[in-house]
Amino acid sequence: MAQNLNVAIIGGGYAGMAAAAELAAKRVPLTLFDSSRVLGGRARVVEAHGCRLDNGLHILLGAYRETLRLMRLVGVDTGKLLLRLPLTMSYPGQLHLSAPHLPAPLHLLLGLLSARGLSWREKLAAIRFMQALKRCHFKLAEGGSVTVADLLSAQAQPQRVCDLLWLPLCVAALNTPPQSASAQVFCNVLRDSLAAQREASDMLLPRTDLTSLFPDLAAAYVAARGGEILRNTPIRKISREDDGFVLQGTSHDFGRYSHVITAVAPYHLAALVDALPQLASLLEAVAAIRYQPIITCHFGYPPEVRLPLPMLGHAHGIMQWLFDRGQLCGTPGVLAAVISAQGRHLELPREALLRAIHAEIAGIVPNLPAPLWSHLINEKRATFACTPSVRRPATRTALPGLLLAGDYVSGDYPATLEGAVRSGVATAASILGELPAG
Ligand SMILES: Cc1cc2nc3c(=O)[nH]c(=O)nc-3n(C[C@H](O)[C@H](O)[C@H](O)COP(=O)(O)OP(=O)(O)OC[C@H]3O[C@@H](n4cnc5c(N)ncnc54)[C@H](O)[C@@H]3O)c2cc1C
Question: pTM for the whole thing?
Answer without folding.
Answer: 0.95
